[in-house]
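For reproducibility, we list the full input for the norvaline complex.
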Amino acid sequence: MLRAKKGNIMKHLLKLMDWSREEIQETLDLADKLKAEKKAGIRHPILEGKSLGMIFEKSSTRTRVSFEVGMYDLGGQALFLSSKDLQIGRGEPVQDTARVLSRFLDGIMIRTFEQKEVEDLAENGSIPIINGLTDYCHPCQVLADLQTIREHKGSLEGKKLCYIGDGNNMANSLIVGGIKMGMRVAVACPEDYQPDAEIMKWAKENGDFLCSSDILLAAEGSDVLYTDVWASMGQESEAAMRKEIFKAYQINEQVVSVCNDGVMVLHCLPAHRGEEITAEVFEKHAAEIFDEAENRLHAQTAVLVKCLAD
Ligand code: CP
Ligand code: NVA
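The corresponding predicted structure, in tokenized form, follows.
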């Protein structure tokens, strides 16, 4: 079984950039093993007596439920901590919250706006911190995505992943995860909505990466197509404007037709049919998309083992 704290080193998952290719590989392998064992009714109560606090400053279906079930499956418990009810929502500094929660809990999963808040929690607390989505990245989702691609395609190395839409948290984490695992990555985004500039620079220096506003050019020869909402959580007031800006950045039959035979289509969900993806393409690829959603549980259970197990 994997061990979390080697010596005195705290294992966090703040962003995928912090994890090596080997660590990601180990996590995916463990996720596959845990998935197979769960289906066979085998459980590993290795987090017995441990508590994970789950701080949510944004909504969630998949992340909340999969972390809660993952902790249960490992013999521990998860506490849902809405920022609406915590003192953090009334201005208590994250530094103090981190120091207090470190005395009660064995780990924290946090979904919030600023990446800095997650980094500050890790800096000031003394327990592992797991990023459950920020405006900057969504590492847990991408571990599940990589697991799903590997499951369906057999391997990641050399496969082409094309992300179409907003250069948001999903785009940033997919670029990092894809490039680290040897995939060829292309993104198609409107010029003013490209992914993080430093991540794109790193991707160009470390792998096969393309960013274009030409969707068909980016999608050509892809093995995996990926999209996400045009307006992320916190951008609700821009939704109408974004519908106009992104209307050409849709996964539809024409985009699928320039990809490799057997292309997978993935979506982190929730999806807006008729916006970033047509209902036809979504339903045709629903089996892959819901395998991807299921793998949130298995990939995160592996992350919990890596970060929280003694
Ligand atoms: N994909 C994802 O993170 O879903 P939730 O927002 O429902 O957690
Ligand atoms: N980009 C989306 C992802 C949701 C899982 C958001 O941040 O709302």
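The first helix runs from residue 21 to 39. Residues 112 and 226 are 23 Å apart (CA to CA). Both points were considered when choosing residues for closer inspection.
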